[in-house]
Structure formats: C-alpha cells, structure tokens
Design goal:
By secondary structure, this protein is mainly alpha-helical. It is built from six helices and two strands, in the order H-E-E-H-H-H-H-H. 55% of the residues lie in helices and 5% in strands. It is elongated, with a radius of gyration of 24 Å. The termini are far apart.
Length: 192
C-alpha cells in the first residue's frame, strides 16, 4: 500500500527554480554583478583564481540572511508582496557578494602583481601608472572593452581634478602603446 505524502515536491522544486531565476535576473540589474558571467557550481571546495606567479585559492563563501516568511503571502499568491519580499532578501545577499567579490579581486590583483599604490601621488599619475600595468584587448576598430571600476571617493577625486594636458597626452600615449602591443602580439600568435 502506498504511503501518503504531504510534501509538495513539484511545488518546492518550482519555487526553487523561480527564486533562482529571480536572483539571476536581479543580479543582471546590479552595476557590478551584472557584468560578471556566473555558473552554477555544485561543490564546496576551493577554487583556484590565480596559478602564477603566486597561487591564490579561495573558498566558496556562504551567504546568509535572516528572513521572516509570511506564509499567507504565498497562500494568497500576492505577487507584489512576494516581489518586494524577495527584493529585500536579494539586497542583503548583494551586500555580502560585493564584499567577497572585492576581497577576491584584491587577492588576485596582488597575486599577479597588478596593484598600483597611489599614496602620495597625483590621482591622474596613479591612473596612468595603473593603465601602463594592465593587459588590454582591442576590437578590429581599435576600441578596448576595459571598464574601470573605482571607489566613489576616487571617482570624485578624478572629477574634481581634471588631468593636465600633459597627463591627458600621457594617458593617450599609454593607451596607444597598449593597442600597438595587443595587435603585435595578435599578429605573432597567428603566424606561429
């Protein structure tokens, strides 16, 4: 004789898929997370971020949020209340995700030697130094797809202190040099 089950496996599975799709959609609206390609991962081990010159392995981070669920919200199928409730949860997770993202970014940039110390330097001189240390890619028209993300205080300093004509020329020269290096390397790779 079959045992009666009061679990709603299909409902629970559908809700899990819905919540996952909502989170993915909301992540796309975030100015940082929306630009990062993500993949579902089913393991709890370490991930290698950098292999050389210094190995950087990171552990998957647990994100937690204390949430009170009004079950009546689900019973009533109140879409607006459900959306607002999930948005509140997502905001809590995004704060944690940003924190860990910038911690990992800091570790990886240090490991590959791509850190520019701006202490005591003019903000534009530090930016030019940073540009000179970057690897960049360019399309057929010579445009790069590199996006510079910076702390709001740094962005404010840049806006309040425009570059001098000399700094602007140094920036353009450094960018042109990166473009030439990229195309020279690309030609060499094709020939070999």
């Amino acid at each position: 004789m079959k045992t009666l089950s009061f679990s709603l496996k299909k409902y629970n599975s559908a809700m899990a898929r819905l919540l996952g799709e909502i989170k993915t959609g909301l992540d796309q609206t975030d100015p940082i997370l929306g630009k990062i390609q993500s993949h579902a991962v089913v393991h709890g081990g370490k991930m290698r971020q950098v292999s050389e010159p210094k190995v950087v392995e990171t552990k998957m981070q647990v994100h937690k949020a204390d949430v009170v669920i009004d079950l009546d919200l689900y019973r009533r199928t109140d879409v607006e209340a459900f959306a607002s409730h999930f948005l509140d949860i997502w905001v809590k997770f995004v704060k944690q995700t940003h924190k860990y993202f910038f911690e990992f970014l800091n570790q990886t940039t240090k490991a590959v030697g791509n850190v520019t110390d701006a202490k005591g330097k003019n903000v534009w001189d530090a930016q030019i130094e940073m540009l000179e240390g970057l690897k960049m890619r360019f399309d057929e028209d010579g445009n790069h797809q590199t996006e510079f993300i910076m702390h709001p205080d740094t962005a404010k300093k840049l806006a309040e202190n425009p570059p001098t004509p000399e700094q602007q020329k140094r920036w353009e020269d450094a960018l042109n040099k990166k473009r030439e290096e990229y195309y020279a390397q690309k030609r060499t790779r094709r020939l070999s």
